[in-house]
Structure formats: C-alpha cells, structure tokens
Amino acid sequence: MQDTERNDPRFADLDAWDSATIMAALWEGQMRAVAALGPALGDLARAVDAAVPRLRAGGVLAYAGAGTSGRIAMQDASELKPTFDWPEDRVAVFMAGGERAFMHAVEGAEDREDEAERAVAHLGANDVLIGLAASGTTPFTLAAIRAARRQGSLTVGIACSAGTPLLEAPEIGILLATGPEAIAGSTRMKAGTAQKAALNLFSTAVMVRLGRVYRGRMVDMNARNAKLERRAERMLAELADATPEAARAALAQAGGKVKLAVLVLDGLAPDEARALLDRHGGNLRAARGH
Questions:
Q1: Is 79 labeled as catalytic in the residue annotation?
Q2: Are 230 and 244 spatial neighbours (Cβ–Cβ below 8 Å)?
Q3: What is 3-209's CATH number?
Q4: Which CATH code is given to the segment(s) 226-288?
Q5: Whether 148 contacts 127, CB under 8 Å
Q6: pLDDT band at residue 100 using 50, 70 and 90 as cut-offs
Q7: How far apart are CA 13 and CA 29, in angstroms?
C-alpha cells in the first residue's frame, strides 16, 4: 500500500474531536508537508540544473498529472506568464481527462495511458516534463513520463510514496515523504501542499537561473493592471536610483519592460538596450556588468 493511502491511527477519532483540536492536527500536517521538502532539496536542485539549458534553448516546460496533482500543476503553470513573462506557448499542462477534469471528476481518466502518450507526442529533446502523483502509481502520469523520456525530453517525477514507479521511470525522481494523511487517502492535504511547494521552488529557481529575476525582483513580470504598473515603477526607481517621474518616462520608452527601462536609465537608447540584453540572453545582471 502506498504511504499516502495508509491509515494513521492517531486520527482514528478525528471525527469526534472539537474544531480547535481538528484544526491543530491539520495544521501540524501542513507543517510536516513543508518539512518534507528538506530532504528533497538536492534532487530539486538537480532537476533545475538539468532543465535550465533545455529551456534556454527554447524548450517547453510541461506538467502531467491527474486529479489534485494535475490541478496543482495548472496553478503553477498559470502563474509563470504574469510573474515571469514566460511565453504561454512554452508551457503545457497534460491533465488526465482533459480540460473538463480541472473542475469535474472524469471517470477512469487517470487510467488512460493512450491519452497520455498522445498528449506528449510533440515533446522533444529541449522540453521538460514534470510528472506529479502523490501515490507514484497513476497510469496516466507514468505513461506520459515514459513516452516523453523515449522522445528525449528531460523527465522529472514527484511522488509522496517511496519505492513507487514514478520515482524510477523518469530521469530524476523526487520523493516528498509526507506519510499517511489525517484522512486516509485525502492527498489534497499534506501531499498536495508538498507538491505545490515543490513546484513553487522548482519553477521559481528555474526562472531565476534563466535571468528573469534581478536583485530579488520580478524584472520580467507582466504589468497588466494599475497595481503592477505602480510596482514596476517602484522597482525601476530602486534598481536604477531614479525618481518616480524618470522611472515612469523610461518605462514608457521601453514599452513597459523593466529590464529595458533599467538600461535606458543607464544611458542607452531603447534599441541599444534591447541589443545588449539579447547578447546576454536577457540577463540584466550580465548586461549591466554587476
């Protein structure tokens, strides 16, 4: 039996406890979920180091999962564009049961290995596929990982049960040892939290390594509303030691692009700034020389 399916006798009377005691027990589980990432940090870092060159070469960052794991993957994927301006055509989520399954249960979807193989058929050598399954045994996710690996993609599996196929099938297997849940098999709890935290760490570190973060700031963010426009102006004023008025003017010249605007405030024309960034692969630190 997978670790996430086992019953924990400590919670046998959970349904008889008062709300405060239930809350404390569930909170403890969430803390343990985050703590489970500690032993996995080395493997997560290996996955980042393996993914960065492929993504720098133009690859797609893709995710595969079923149920809770697929929904967690979608949340991570959907935040890459507004946070880091990662191109929408270079991210994909393969969900067992298709788009309907993000909001509704789709009977038998997680067993459809043929659908998984079709979904990943276009992935190639520069692409990265992250497969998530708390149990580590979901047929859809395993089929996606195995097919993508045959096609030369980097494959990473994240599971919450030791000794399971999803830790063996990919190039890199990452165990998040969250153990049994307070409600046996309810992997939206500890396992879900650990998977989301792992993806937070992985995708953020990848974007940092790709030059989409500079001095701890989201310099590639997509300023799509008034709040984010104000954030971009503050960010630019701090990075370039400029007045708010100068920052606003530079952003206008740079078409709202923070990295370009920093170089404009450094004294470059927008076209010169764009060419300099291109030469350095979009890395502002390298472009500025510090």
A1: yes
A2: no
A3: 3.40.50.10490
A4: 1.10.8.1080
A5: yes
A6: confident
A7: 16
Burial 136-148 (b: 16+ CB within 10 A, else e): bbbbbbbbbbbbb
Q: Which of 42-46, 197-201, 217-221 has the lowest mean pLDDT?
A: 217-221
Catalytic residue among 5, 79, 113, 229: 79
**Residue 113 appears among annotated catalytic residues:** no
What mean pLDDT is predicted for residues 105-122?
90
Question: How would residue 89 be classed by pLDDT, with cut points 50, 70 and 90?
Answer: very high
Give residues with Cβ within 8 angstroms of 48, minimum separation 6.
202, 205, 206, 209
Q: Is the pTM of this model over 0.70?
A: yes
Q: For CATH 1.10.8.1080, list the domain ranges present in the chain.
A: 226-288
Question: Do the Cβ atoms of 53 and 153 come closer than 8 Å?
Answer: no
Catalytic residue among 88, 99, 110, 117: 110
For the stretch 33-59, pLDDT in tens is 999 999 999 999 999 999 999 999 999
Q: How far apart are CA 194 and CA 33, in angstroms?
A: 5
pLDDT, one tens digit per residue, over 183-195 is 887 888 999 999 9
